[in-house]
Amino acid sequence: MWKKAILWAAAALASLIATAETGYELWQRYAPPAQATIASQYRSLLAVHFRSGTPTDSVLLAELDRAFQGMLRSRPRLSPSPQSAGLIIQLFQESAVAAWWPSSVPQQCGPEGFAVHHRVVAGRSQVFIGANTSIGLLYGTFHVLRHMAAGRPLAGVATAGASAPATRWRMLNHWDNLDRSVERGYAGQSIWNWHTLPDYIDQRYIDYARANASIGINAVALTNVNANATVLTPAYLEKVKALAQVFRPYGIRIFLTARFSAPIEIGGLKTADPLDTAVQGWWQRKADEIYQRIPDFGGFLVKANSEGQPGPQNYGRHHADGANMLAKALAPHAGVVIWRAFVYSHETPEDRFKQAYQEFVPLDGRFDSNVLVQVKNGPIDFQPREPFHPLFGALPRTPTMMEFQLTQEYLGFATHLVYLGPMFTEVLGTDTHRPTAGNTVADVVSGKSFGYTQTGMAGVSNIGADLNWTGHPFAQANWYALGRLAWNPRLDAASIANEWIAQTFTQQPAAVASIRQMMMQSHEAVVNYMTPLGLHHIMGYGHHYGPAPWYDKASRADWNCTYFHRADQHGIGFDRTSTGSNALQQYAPYWQQQWASAKSTPLSLLLWFHKVGWSEGLPNGKTLWQNMALQYQQGVQQVQQMQQSWAQLRQAVDERRHQQVTQLLHIQASEAVWWRDACLSYFQTFSKQPLPAGVPAPQHPLEYYQQLRFPYAPGQAH
Amino acid sequence: MWKKAILWAAAALASLIATAETGYELWQRYAPPAQATIASQYRSLLAVHFRSGTPTDSVLLAELDRAFQGMLRSRPRLSPSPQSAGLIIQLFQESAVAAWWPSSVPQQCGPEGFAVHHRVVAGRSQVFIGANTSIGLLYGTFHVLRHMAAGRPLAGVATAGASAPATRWRMLNHWDNLDRSVERGYAGQSIWNWHTLPDYIDQRYIDYARANASIGINAVALTNVNANATVLTPAYLEKVKALAQVFRPYGIRIFLTARFSAPIEIGGLKTADPLDTAVQGWWQRKADEIYQRIPDFGGFLVKANSEGQPGPQNYGRHHADGANMLAKALAPHAGVVIWRAFVYSHETPEDRFKQAYQEFVPLDGRFDSNVLVQVKNGPIDFQPREPFHPLFGALPRTPTMMEFQLTQEYLGFATHLVYLGPMFTEVLGTDTHRPTAGNTVADVVSGKSFGYTQTGMAGVSNIGADLNWTGHPFAQANWYALGRLAWNPRLDAASIANEWIAQTFTQQPAAVASIRQMMMQSHEAVVNYMTPLGLHHIMGYGHHYGPAPWYDKASRADWNCTYFHRADQHGIGFDRTSTGSNALQQYAPYWQQQWASAKSTPLSLLLWFHKVGWSEGLPNGKTLWQNMALQYQQGVQQVQQMQQSWAQLRQAVDERRHQQVTQLLHIQASEAVWWRDACLSYFQTFSKQPLPAGVPAPQHPLEYYQQLRFPYAPGQAH
């Protein structure tokens, strides 16, 4: 019994310690450095020279205080002279810091960038943060704190010259409704408690702003692209104003979704025709009304003429007519319109892949200068893997903004560990070959290729009211990666993972490496166990939970899974070459050539562009069927490997989150098996071939998988 | 600037400390005792003698460990002999503890009770906890921890003999739907994440069980009384089973709502007629199926033939027919049926007040022995103040269970500070005069009056996924009070407030007194600013947010506010005496006599039973109109007093929760003014009299209040 009691005591202690690690603190835990030498080095920075004035300066100081108390168990003290300080935070226009960089650096920093210098004087570190603005200093401070919270030696904290953001708008798009449901939200209700706004300022709003600013996010669209117009009424604008006041010191500007038919619904007009002067006047007055409350309002995010949403095409106008009308209302206030290219017409298209390109390329050059077109990373809809969207590089005169999805609508919701960093960098790093070779998607988005005056990168938020914000503790990494890549699209996913892990879980090098390995293979794993070889959109109808490749009951063809995989006795895949829909033609000639034949198309995109026979041989010597089955199996095994790696990390990670992730990996492993078994059972009805060695027989007959129903799968907005 | 920096530093420190106080810990914060002498006294208890064996014993030890680390910054150690221990926790059948009480105590404790003894030996405290069962020991341990967490001297920890619960079922009724919406929920989504159950066990489930066990709650109905039958399907029963496994060590049993038409909806039958043998067989098999998974399943909670829910009356049967059919299915497993008396027929009644009594009194004696009838505290629907329900005392042969509402559907949602303790004790302490004088509602409910074999008290839960569980930090007190009163309905509300405050906010006596005073007047305040003098059900239609006494557009008369207040040029109030609906006849003769005339009816219930002329004089010398106006004004002033008291408590309460409550009181004060102005503006159109001195003119014309719309008011289930 006494031995048992000791065991109990150890377990109880672990659970006690664990209560602190709810995940609420995100990557801003500010745990003490693991190494004592590092900690003593950091202590030099406790003497801070900083002349505070703006509200942004105040939040900078509050953050330093919080961070140093966490990491060093000491409070920073203000030092009257730069000489006696370890951390010098100064605008370039002041004296001390400017000397440390070439004279070009301040200009390179622009309005948001910063530079950091490190030197050692008499054995003590001195760190200089310089910027042109308060917000630049805040970003520079977060740069230093990120470095310290990862437990790294101060020598590495310096920037090589200026660190300035690659994009103007680094953004989260919330798909949050006013009833607090979140479309495709898997982490609880919307964090916006509209009922208690504007009078109640939830601490979450402040912590949300802190987290965003720490990774450079400077814009948020509060409402769902499918939301109604109520958010534009005065009572709601008062609530939005209250949030804007919270966000302002953190450099974050608010966007709202503008329902195109708002002039009818809340304005009492009979039309929303963008060429109607009454409509134009209504939007101008609405913009004036918003800016009177929120002088730094960002602008409107618009989904129009897509999935049943109203838009200019309802009146025989085109997207530019609609966008420009709104742009003209916002222009006097320096606001912008973000117009989504995810269009989805009422009629069933020949190939849904092609519609955005077809509608937007003819309009290139016809948008006002304060309009951005926001394009999803791929041509369909946030699938586990897509080729890059052919619009990137195809709109030289239209600022083209990236829309990634952080919320894992098609990637296991908040129960699968899927680090999206590798997926983001795969897309961003792809050469569009437009106008010439060497222009990556990142170059297009950051304005380098075509000199866009507006640039941006958005992530559809995975944030909810769950205690840890994102449901899965690892889903926080996707929010983090979006911010970091929007600032610098050339960062690599592994480095981002490294710094996120060290701040979030542990600084222990072997543990960081092991967690990073899990993360880095997780995206390939989900592709393998859900949609290998270029399969896409074979998830459950409506809720998108689980496999349903057999689904063919939707009211229109391109809402069916069978539309996308086209499996029959001959083979599987969507022929998008010249013998099929020829969507391929929308890419630069380089890619047309690359992907025109199945032989030269990488396996990862094969069935995106080709219908391939079940028994056709692939370059690796296997048949398509064998390869598909083995890849499903590989996906399952990759999750099992993640489970094994995580089990080894019990000592390195706090008990509570360790247990959470253990449970979630268990769900993920079960669901990977479900995906494999359901998909292979179904596709086997066409291939009529046995499973290759190493792929176990499905646990249930196909009918079992087909009869599963999930009426309350999360993320379905009301 | 340096002075400013110091100020900044103080503020930042406060906000840092505050991050710990999210409210998630509820009353289980286990803060160190404020007095050093008390702390040193407590340290004796670190030596614990306890022979652990059952799962309940394990959670007892884990709780001790958590509590002592919190309060004493030390871990308890197990002591092999009782002599060397400070805290001795033993079953009566073991040796050490039984000696401390009269031999009758073990029997008085029953299966859940406990006894606590304290003595001082050689200057050191020894505390003995005895019980017949593991769960009794757990309750006894929570008794001791509650005492310590309130910082009280150990001498007062002893119980006077046995502490045994007054009721068998001490229960929370969740109105949670499977899509995680909560009907009348104001604290976020349902904490039951059905999608990730059974594989993912959220830490919240464990902390929820800990909190409930700490106040003696031993039963929870997981699902909404209006829920569909899906929760009874095998996939969901697996999820329920997982929760039952979490709750079992904490002595908590699960109930599910049973939709009466389930045999049709999920059973494929053509009828749900309770006298149909196929229907009976279906329920028997369903019960067997549930108990196979959950051997300690509590039973079914049923809302039938009310507000459109199906029930036995659909087949020409009565409530006892329906309840007994379910009871017979549960009886072999010792399960019970809780049948709600909140019935609400399809036809508009003469007086909705009367329906429950009319339907249930004739059935008294016809229910099986494992059926309880659950009766709301008042005859209408959880209004700020109601007379006690006439069914209490009117069902001598039918176990009558109390249904309170913790969630503040009609009391300001989660934004108004309303401590319901005084309301609960007001009802429980009322003498029903049935069968004779001296039988209070508490006596009826606890089985004392009629010797019921089943007893219970339920609270409709105010719990959601908000960080602090209940939205308003003070709403936690209502959950707490329900548990404490279900265990001992003779506790007074102020004592409950005292212990809750000391555990939750501060042990500082002046601060405790000030907070208690706020709490104790808060219920009277909300009655005053919403529904003084016996007004009721004049809230906004459907969502019940804000005042709408003018509302008369509902499809049936008794859904209109005008139905309940009956204001016209002559006066206001619902005549329920013999000249009116004569609902009064449903009470014992004592109350009939008391309330038959307006003169002998207390002002607090006046308009519940009488229509009174605007200019009629009241005993206090004022006219009805004057009194009404002044009471609305008094309600506003009481909230303003609460604001002032709270402002004084800045030093006594952590910054974060202090700020939260400050903001919420600001909302409450604004809404109290809104209530006063809207109601008085409206009623003035009938009284045609000026507002008395001291009542300010309304801020807006009546039309302003009438045009307000709240399409997204929370708590409206989908």
Please write out the topology.
Two copies of one chain form a homodimer.
Chain A: H1 2-18, H2 36-42, E1 47-50, H3 55-72, E2 77-78, E3 87-91, H4 105-109, E4 114-121, E5 124-131, H5 134-149, E6 169-173, H6 203-214, E7 219-221, H7 234-247, E8 253-257, H8 262-265, H9 277-293, E9 299-302, H10 319-330, E10 336-340, H11 355-360, E11 371-376, E12 400-405, H12 421-428, H13 441-445, E13 456-460, H14 476-487, H15 493-504, H16 509-530, H17 561-565, E14 571-572, H18 589-596, H19 606-609, E15 612-613, H20 624-647, H21 655-687, H22 702-707
Parallel strand pairs in A: 1-2, 1-3, 3-5, 6-7, 6-13, 7-8, 8-9, 9-10, 10-11, 11-12, 12-13
Antiparallel strand pairs in A: 4-5, 14-15
Helix pairs in contact in A: 3-5, 9-10, 12-15, 14-15, 15-16, 16-20, 20-21
| Multimeric state | homodimer
Q: Largest interface here, residues on each chain? A: A-B, 55 and 55 residues
Residue runs with pLDDT of under 50 for 5 or more positions of chain A? 1-19
The second-level CATH architecture of the largest domain in chain A is Alpha-Beta Barrel
Helix content of chain A: 25-40%
Total beta strand runs of chain A: 15
pLDDT averaged over residues of chain A? 95
Radius of gyration of chain A: 26 Å
Q: How much beta of chain A, percentage-wise?
A: 5-15%
The CATH topology assignment of the largest domain in chain A is: TIM Barrel
